[in-house]
Design goal:
- Substrate binds at residue 116.
- Its EC number is 5.4.99.12.
- Belongs to the tRNA pseudouridine synthase TruA family.
- This protein has helices at residues 30-42, 71-76, 78-87, 143-151, 201-213, 219-228, and strands at residues 4-13, 48-50, 59-70, 93-100, 113-121, 135-136, 155-158, 173-184, 187-194, 243-249.
- Strand 2 (48-50) and strand 3 (59-70) form a beta hairpin.
- The chain is elongated.
- Helix 4 (143-151) packs across helix 5 (201-213).
- The chain has two domains: 4-110, Pseudouridine synthase I, catalytic domain, N-terminal subdomain (Alpha-Beta Plaits, 2-Layer Sandwich), CATH 3.30.70; 113-246, Pseudouridine synthase I, catalytic domain, C-terminal subdomain (Alpha-Beta Plaits), CATH 3.30.70.
- The chain has six helices and ten strands, in the order βαββααβββαβββααβ.
């Protein structure tokens, strides 16, 4: 009988080639690629569980994933295991850090919070470089107004107004712990952290903040939208390619803690 070791991996990926995280028949997914690589190492089927499930086109910087692997193979060399996994992955996916965890650790159910960043390229001309890393918006956005609107989201609220159709969450109450809007040259960053997120919640949030920044609605209008709990009153969903899963938080570590530096 093989002795197993549960490991946690920080996974980085370019979302463009994939139909999201979750494995699907006849479609390329991040989970499918990772499990294929682990199966090649282990010589058996390996299941993975992630802190969250990203949609098609969404990128990841440090998505926390757990899996059960051979303890003897893992103990021989942690670094070799990481490099062996990466050598079997497509260029668009990398395991950027790994550590052993307790046998009952669960990447999803033990997660205390998650964070995302959304990137907007805000100038008249579209970017020639990294055009699939940002949402290009040629109309000047007022980030001061966007920041005012964002303040209405902080804390625990019912976010039904930002909840997409098809969301399977039992309720819409979530706690946003951090929401920052900043500008770096032409790039606007919207960074958000919460205990958990509803389906398309971040992209719907961004769509509404952009309307505030463009002068199509006021910060108070946005507050009224949240209070209404009516998704139909909200803005269109922001495109997937500007969104990044950035971190997952646990009691004694977070996903970014795992990221390996240079040798």
């Amino acid at each position: 009988m093989i002795t197993m070791q549960r490991i946690a991996m920080a996974v980085e990926f370019d979302g463009r080639p994939f139909h999201g995280w979750q494995q699907q028949d006849h479609a390329s997914t991040v989970q499918g690629s990772l499990q294929d690589a682990l199966q090649s190492i282990e010589g058996r089927t390996v299941s993975t569980v992630a802190a969250g499930r990203t949609d098609a086109g969404v990128h990841g910087e440090a998505l926390l994933v757990h899996a059960d692997v051979s303890a003897s193979r893992w103990q021989r060399s942690h670094r070799a295991y990481l490099h062996g996994c990466n050598s079997r992955l497509p260029d668009s996916v990398r395991v950027v850090g790994v550590r052993a965890v307790e046998a009952d650790f669960h990447a999803r159910f033990d997660c205390r919070g998650r964070s995302y960043r959304y990137q907007i390229w805000n100038r008249q001309t579209a970017p020639a470089l990294q055009q699939w890393r940002h949402w290009w918006l040629p109309r000047q956005l007022d980030i001061g107004l966007m920041q005012q609107a964002a303040m209405h989201c902080l804390g625990k609220h019912d976010f039904s107004a930002l909840r997409a159709a098809g969301c399977q969450a039992a309720h819409a109450e979530k706690e946003i712990r951090m929401l920052e809007v900043s500008r770096d040259g032409y790039c606007i960053h919207i960074q958000v952290a919460a205990d958990a997120f509803l389906y398309h919640m971040v992209r719907n949030l961004v769509g509404n903040l952009v309307e505030v920044g463009a002068g199509k609605r006021t910060p108070d209008d946005f507050a009224s939208l949240l209070a209404s709990r009516d998704r139909q009153r909200g803005a269109a969903t922001a495109p997937a390619h500007g969104l990044y899963f950035t971190n997952a938080f646990y009691d004694d570590f977070n996903a970014r803690d795992l990221i390996a530096g240079c040798d």
